[in-house]
Amino acid sequence: MKIRIRFAKRGTMRFIGHLDIMRYFQKSMRRAHVDICYSQGFSPHQIMSFASPLGIGLTSEGEYMDIEVNSSESSKAMIRRLNEVMAEGMEILSWVRLPEEGKTNAMANIAAADYRVTLHGTAVQELTRSERAASGAEIAALWESFLEQKEIMIHKVTKKNEMDVDIRPLIFDASCKGDTFTLRLSSGSVQNLKPEAVMEAFFAWAGAILPEHALSICRLDMFALREEKLVSLEFLGEVIA
């Protein structure tokens, strides 16, 4: 049986890297006595995969992992069992059964992700290039003008090469309220846009410098594309009664 688990990563857990999170959940499955399936061979391991690694320092309300189990209680019971062994800052939010057929792998299905970005420290002052903080209306006006551009070019450096990339088509939706921005960005293995890149481009366009550690970023959810509509990865499965 294929299961998709949605979980939140908050507080100090944002400083725990992806590999440590994997090991943490492997231990948690054993502690919660989840009837998880193991691979075959000389070194069996739990059948478990994650949708998309979360950068260190980011929090999330919409992380996903897929597992295979031999048996399962109700979704409500499994959520309770796992949350009983979770550390502070980690919370299981949903447990759904995935269809046995079709492309259900979370990592392969990601098309977009939602983020909430909040400015801290002197970042708001930088936008006005003065000692006073920009008002919510000023930030919103700047943001609207920034998004009205037909192209938003950034310089991207990879291990293999460097290139200029237009990220405007990868920003599916974006809004601003005060010092908080909500972004829906292209995500996945084909085209992946990080919220940090968007904010750096915004500040550069405004002629401002984005201070270090000025962004608080939370990933809210991840989506798959189904019949030309974005659907939360959670809703690709069904709750077990």
Automatic annotation (TrEMBL):
<dbReference type="InterPro" id="IPR018768">
    <property type="entry name" value="DUF2344"/>
</dbReference>
<dbReference type="Pfam" id="PF10105">
    <property type="entry name" value="DUF2344"/>
</dbReference>
<protein>
    <submittedName>
        <fullName>TIGR03936 family radical SAM-associated protein</fullName>
    </submittedName>
</protein>
<feature type="domain" description="DUF2344">
    <location>
        <begin position="2"/>
        <end position="195"/>
    </location>
</feature>
